[in-house]
Amino acid sequence: MNKTEEKLREEKIDQEILFDCYSTEEQIRAWYDYLIESISFPFDAVWQNEKITVLDMSDFYQCEKDRDMLVETNCDGEIQSISLFHINDPNADEKTKEALNEWKHWVNSGNRFDDEDGFY
After folding, report:
1. Is 113 helix (H, G, I), strand (E, B) or coil?
2. What is the pLDDT of residues 8-46, one digit of tens each?
3. Coil, strand, or helix at residue 14?
4. Alpha-carbon distance 114 to 13, whole Å?
C-alpha cells in the first residue's frame, strides 16, 4: 500500500467508521456495525495455518466484553469464536476483504480498545 492509499484508508476509518465516537463503547459499536454490514458471510479463510469457514460475527456483547472483534468459525466441524484480526487469506468478495484490511490496518497502527481513558 502506498502512502496515498494509506492516507485514504485512515481518512475512511476516521471520517466514516469512527466519526462521532467519544467513548470506547461507541468505538466498539461503530466497528462492529461497520464490519457486520460490510462482510459477506460465510467465507473461507486461514487461521493458524488451518482452512476454516468464517460463519458470522460473534455476538456484539461478546465483542464488547472481550474488547475485540470476534467471528464465529467452523474449523473441522467445531464452532469457535476467534479474533477477526487473526483471519488470513480470505476467499471473499472485495468489500469483505476491504473491511478486513481496514480492521487490520487500524489494529496494526497501534489502536486498541482501552478501558482506562477511552481509546487511542
Report:
1. coil
2. 999 999 999 999 998 999 999 999 999 999 999 999 999
3. helix
4. 18
Cell numbers given for 8: 485514504
Q: Among positive and negative, which fits the CA dihedral 67, 68, 72, 78?
A: negative
pTM over 0.85: yes
CA distance 76 to 66: 24
And the C-alpha cell for 38?
460490510
What is d(CA 24, CA 37) in angstroms, rounded to the nearest whole number? 20
End-to-end CA distance of the chain: 23
The number of C-alpha atoms within 13 Å of 32 and in the hemisphere containing its C-beta is 22
In the structure grid, which three cell numbers stand for residue 117, read together?
481513558
Residue 40's CB is within 10 A of a number of other CB atoms, namely 11
Give the three cell numbers for residue 5. 492509499
Amino acid at 8: L
Three-state DSSP at 20 gives coil
Pairing of β 78-83 and β 88-91: unpaired
